[in-house]
Reverse transcriptase zinc-binding domain-containing protein (Mucor ambiguus), 291 residues
Amino acid sequence: MMYKSINMLPRDFDEVAINLPTALMLPLSTVIYSDPQSTVKLPRKVHSMTDADVFAGTFKIQPFFLPLFVPSAPSSLSLSSSSSSLRPFVTHLTTTNNLAITSSTSYKSKSYRQACSSASAVPQHLTAIVSAQWSFFWSLSLTMIQRNVVYRLISKCIPHQSLLHLRFPTVHLSPLCVVCSLVDDSIDHFLFVCSLKVAVWQGIISEFLWPTKTIADICHSLLSLDFHNIRYSQRPHASSHHIVIIAMSNIWKAHYRLIFDQTPFAPAAVLNSIRLDIQKMIDEDLIHASL
Ligand SMILES: [Zn+2]
């Protein structure tokens, strides 16, 4: 529910009308339009300034702020009111998405999240997971990266190269997988079926899981959050679901070490990182058990 609410937050407030007192209390950084093409950086100190402080004309201004520069513009009641109010911004949060929030006096984050959850149909790939499996997933002790990768897989939010090329063709010039450069990238290819990632998964299966299990079995378990089919673990004190989640998070990290640090994706090194993470988890569990 929280992720969905965040996704539904408006990306712009161009149509919001505010009055002068409200404008003067806003932090200066919020009224400066951040142009993705611009190389001008805001000085750190600016974030603690307000519009009542000095304002230099180096930056573009947000559209909702521009009418206040015109002396004759504040003719409507909302603009000419003498008291400051952030209500126009709050109202915009609900009107943008046509959310059914009836209260006109107070908005709470919980009611906003609930309104977002009922505003559109839940995708089938999310409803296919039964609530008991969701509860199981949230109850697991995972690092932020481990939980993030699983959730991204389930929500189909993996930023694979084909998607990046589609969205930003001038930055990502090719849809080809950056690891093997042989085929167009996809969610499955990114996490499971690229040849070097297959090598990692096969290593995981032979060393930690039941040898007849397949990468497809692992993928299905992660997408359903039901790990019964791959429940056997060769490693004492390490459950199969923790093993595959740790493996996938290490594949994710190794992928981005290639992107950002130009560190080659080496299956042997990734497998070693997975072994270390599994041992670390076992050691931490033993410490907790002994307390
Ligand atoms: Zn590949």
